[in-house]
Amino acid sequence: MEYDVIIIGAGINGCCSAYTLAQAGLNVALIDQDGIASGGSGAAGAFISPKISKAGALKEIMERAHAEALEFYTTRFPRFTLTKPLLHIANSPQESDKLEHFKRETSLQHSPIDDALQSLLTEEASNDSAVYFTEGAVVDAQGVCRSMAEGIDFYPLKVEQLIHRDEVWQVGDLNAKHLVLALGAYPKLLPIDYVGLRGIWGHRIDIETSTHVPCILHHHVSISPTTKEGIVAIGATHDVHYSPFLGELYDVEQGRAVLLEKASKTLTLNNINIINDYTGLRSGSNDYLPMLGNLVDADATLLCYPHLRHGKAVDPADYVYYPQLTMINGSGGYGFVLAPYLAKRLKEYLVDGKALNLALSPSRFFPRWAKKHQS
Ligand SMILES: Cc1cc2nc3c(=O)[nH]c(=O)nc-3n(C[C@H](O)[C@H](O)[C@H](O)COP(=O)(O)OP(=O)(O)OC[C@H]3O[C@@H](n4cnc5c(N)ncnc54)[C@H](O)[C@@H]3O)c2cc1C
Q: pTM of the entire structure?
């Protein structure tokens, strides 16, 4: 089968890219070993929340991505998007400092909280710095991914090998000019050890409770508003030590206890019944910026420029790249916020010929890696 683009990985990055490229008229094949939203994306609480940060490239990208995501999900996928106000409460003195700064600078509408909400909060939550945004959103992670993939040719395959021959990528019986890798925290399929990614394990739970939660709450943990089905989501834990790839068993009971204890610092949830657990890996970059860009062929580049090993600079435009191959990854805990932003830039690159932002290129990690790896 011939396609314009093959996308490997049907998490939020793969699905949102497939949707955006198909909307632009490309013929897309989407592949996943375990089905749509089976990786980190299927576990996500999928809050579309602003990142509270002070200044710099990350703040600018996150602000833009957040605004684009709110617009994207509410207009394109309203059935899977719950919009409610969002109360962000600082959980440490450092965060309090960042939050106060953010509040002064942000263009997002915010207001004092009303008495009804105030009365729900614990004393600790009431006393910490907080900002109450008029508009927040949370999406149904699995529902939105499935809906994006509707009408796209989906192949349930575990890809073991990538072949590029005569300017065509071959994945099993599928051929395409362009290949997009959206593999999350899974093994990378190519010798690209310079790409600084780490898996961060997360656990969230869905509960029934007699307490009605009127808005999105972020404090020691995130708590969703009560859905029309009467569900409240609590999540997620952040564990950089546990990995399902190492064969250890995960302690679900302990994860539940951590989540409930953290939620109790924000408000009292009465008559709790846990109805579902979701676990998965986020894939975070070492510098917290997401990755969207071409991949350096490390061996070929070092052959051309051996002095890279000694720390000599080479213009990234002169590196040897795998042809017609783009990676989208490294969104950490903000994959649902970042996906529409990244997919839009991927479309502008593949369809409109616009250059990708070099600050997001995975090649940013290459020179440092080359210097450390002497042979
Ligand atoms: C518990 C939890 C809560 C979260 N909460 C939020 C939140 O509130 N808001 C937010 O914005 N983000 C949240 N995130 C983060 C977000 O889910 C991730 O950033 C996002 O899932 C990354 O998506 P992805 O498409 O890059 O990776 P994934 O969703 O992991 O998708 C990668 C896919 O690639 C497939 N794959 C890998 N290798 C192969 C292969 N060789 N062949 C075929 N298929 C392959 C896998 O099966 C997988 O389905 C949360 C994450 C977790 C775990």
A: 0.97
